[in-house]
Design brief:
The protein has 423 residues and is mainly alpha-helical. It has two domains: 1-216; 219-423, no CATH class. It is 86% helix and 0% strand. It is globular.
Amino acid sequence: MSKSVGGRAEGLIKHGTVLLVATVLTGLSNTLFNIVMGRMLTTEDFGDYYGLVSLYMILVLPLGAVQTVTARYVSALEGRRLLGHAAALLRRSVVKLSIMAAGVAIVFLVFGPLLADYLNVHSLVAVYAVGLAVALAMVSPVFWGALQGFQFFYHYAANQLAATLAKLAGGILMVWLGCEVAGAVGSLVLFQAAIILVALLPLKVVLLKLSGGDQGVDSRPHYRFLWSVLVSLLAFAVFSQADILTAKHFFDRTLGGEYGLAKIIGNAFLFVPIALSTVMFPKVSQRTASGQPGTLRLLNTTLVYCILLCGLAILVCAAVPGLILGLLFPEATDAARELVRIFGLGVTPVALLHILINYLLARGRSGFLYLLLPLALCYVIALQLLHGSLAAIIWVMASFGLGTFIALYLVVLSGERSVELTQ
């Protein structure tokens, strides 16, 4: 491996580790926040809070595509030394999304009372808080996408932690002061506002002072690519979440609950590819735009690092599943422990699939969706047919995750092997 490629791999591992730590800390903080809210709020108020959080998550999930698309085009423009165009694209995106966000806020103001009645939520202010949080969440992905695209990974990690701290401290304080459900949901507003405000520190020069690209930048490809990202997010959601829906549908509430406890442990494996993909994506996109070599080696380095980390986690889960569950869910039974013992084997191929999807998107390729979507459909059908036990669901996930990963990796090789061999 050349010195330059070695340096890129070192940067990927270093930055990926930093973001992985930040992602894990964020996940633990969110779990802690929900536990604290469960103790500070009454059962009825906690039900209102969690119902509104679920509504918020449904509405903001597709907005992750905005971050991915922004990161791709910012890194590509920077790779071509078109910083003025990147600044113009960011300003244009913030303005357009802010207008849309204002419309969302107005919709919540008008229909908030009806929504509160439909969800049986007693706090109208809490419903309005969700509306404001969703409105801010329409704009904040641009800032995270910019940090990712410019490869400001330390700022990205610091931003993530600062926003989480604002949510944790601010939410607990507001509930303690008597705001109850509105205070708990208001933590989401603090989280999104903190993302934007903290991101302005490293991005203020880009957003406010760089010019020269307002007339030359064409944002139409930026928005067209959004659809490919949205479909990719949907397909990956099928591979990562269809198993729990199958368990809940075909098994009784007790067994479904046991699977749900194991699933929480399994989802922790996804912290690894999320962090690594965040680092890999702009590096691959930038090198693709500038015509530089080494993208396939970056992909392979990312995959190997993910396999090593997930492999370590698999060994831990297999060795001490009772200890892991006991720390989080003392009420878990032996059935959940046995699921935790093998869950990592099921979710690791899905984790690798996440990295591969991000790589293909960073390369500007969308044709792989014609293969990914049918395989996702076949996976759903297989779950409906091969759910003889809870463990069988995990093995189906492992099989289809691995098979889909291999299929997409062959797509990568078929399009890039000849190029990589000349580098």
